[in-house]
TrEMBL record:
Keywords: Cell membrane, Disulfide bond, Ion channel, Ion transport, Leucine-rich repeat, Membrane, Repeat, Signal, Transmembrane, Transmembrane helix, Transport
Species whose genome carries this gene: Aphis gossypii
Gene Ontology CC terms: plasma membrane
Top-level taxon: Eukaryota
UniProt keyword annotation of Transport present: yes
The protein's name in its UniProt record: Uncharacterized protein
Subcellular localization: Cell membrane
Coiled-coil boundaries: none
GO biological process, one term: monoatomic ion transmembrane transport
Membrane topology field: Single-pass membrane protein
């Protein structure tokens, strides 16, 4: 099968812009990053500052501020080895620095706009980039502040589990928090270490801490369907080595990091009806037991050619209702067990179909 599509108009890349424009953009990014990190360090928020560091400095180099907790005895920067107690929590710090950031960015954008003849090209691009990075920072800070489960291992662990707002079933080793109007993981809920299924669907959860499911090595089923989750930490599923079913349908996820490096037993994965725009090429490299994969209803424009490589057990693949510009028949190479494929050809500009 071969598919071809019309190319969209290219409005230019950063490499094509004049040197002074790139310099102004870097200065703008550096100013915002410096203010954000300074705010968080002022209040001793080491973990939150680490989130700022990882989010904002990809394009502008090393940070100009280094918290003392990140230094060794010689004054050299090290990785964050501990979490200090913040005078403000991460979300409060973010809210309080937001106005300062807006005041800092406004004159920079005005200057860029003026020097660009009022066309808004560079200023618009860089303004959108700054806005996206600040939104990413906001999501990461909210994740840092989220509560985690209290894990129990005593003889009465399942009895204690029923003291919380969720329904715990000893006979099935399952915990259901379905339709409880939760906006976060319930901090008063204890969770037995040997739980095998958790249902958090149909709530209003916005974010999750990276340690939400830490140590739940018996967990095989996790349902996060129909929430408002827009950010997932990279390491959140790392200890779920026996996970076989993950449902993430109907959330607000925008970016997908390499989430499944250690989830080698996963068979059913539903990430449909989110706002995902792109996927890492090696996202499914370790998930060779996948049987069902649903990615429909997102905003994906292009799938990397080898993204489904070696998924020999995959039978049901749904890529429909995306914003596909092109799709190569190469992505199905080696996917030998496919029985059902949905691509939604009408969402692609022009196609020439051969066969799978």
């Amino acid at each position: 099968m071969s598919l071809a599509v019309k190319k969209r108009k290219n409005f230019g890349t950063g490499a094509e812009r004049r040197p002074w424009q790139r310099g102004e953009a870097a200065a703008a990014m550096s100013t915002v990053a410096t203010l954000a990190l300074a705010w968080l360090q002022q209040f001793g928020c080491c973990e939150a500052a680490a989130a700022v560091n990882g989010t904002l400095y990809g394009a502008v180099g090393p940070p100009p501020f280094v918290h003392p907790a990140w230094m060794d005895v010689g004054g050299n920067a090290t990785s964050v080895g501990r979490v200090d107690v913040c005078a403000l929590n991460a979300c409060e710090a973010y809210v309080r620095m937001r106005d300062d950031l807006a005041n800092a960015v406004r004159p920079i954008n005005d200057k860029l706009s003026g020097e660009d003849g009022g066309r808004g090209g560079v200023a618009g691009d860089r303004g959108a980039l700054l806005e996206a990075r600040l939104q990413r920072l906001d999501r990461r800070l909210r994740s840092v502040e989220q509560p985690v489960w209290t894990i129990t291992s005593g003889v009465s662990r399942w009895k204690r589990c029923n003291y919380g707002p969720c329904k715990c079933r000893t006979e099935t080793h399952s915990v259901s928090c379905w339709r409880k109007d939760f906006e976060e993981i319930p901090p008063g809920q204890t969770l037995p270490y040997d739980v095998s299924a958790i249902d958090l669907s149909t709530n209003s959860i916005v974010s999750l801490h990276k340690d939400t499911f830490k140590g739940l090595t018996n967990l095989t089923e996790l349902d996060l369907t129909d929430n408002d989750i827009d950010y997932v930490p990279t390491a959140i599923f790392n200890t779920l080595e026996n996970l076989t079913k993950l449902r993430f349908h109907r959330n607000h996820l925008i970016e997908v990091p390499l989430l499944f490096k250690r989830n080698t037993k996963i068979q059913i994965l539903d990430m449909s009806m989110n706002h995902i725009k792109q996927l890492p090429e090696t996202l499914f490299q370790s998930t060779k037991n996948l049987v069902l994969l649903h990615l429909y209803g997102n905003k994906i424009e292009v799938f990397p050619k080898s993204i489904f490589k070696d998924l020999n057990k995959l039978e049901d693949l749904d890529l429909s209702a995306n914003s596909l510009l092109e799709i190569s028949s190469d992505i199905f190479r080696g996917v030998s067990s496919l029985k059902k494929v949905e691509i939604a050809r009408k969402s692609i500009a022009t196609t020439t179909l051969g066969g799978i």
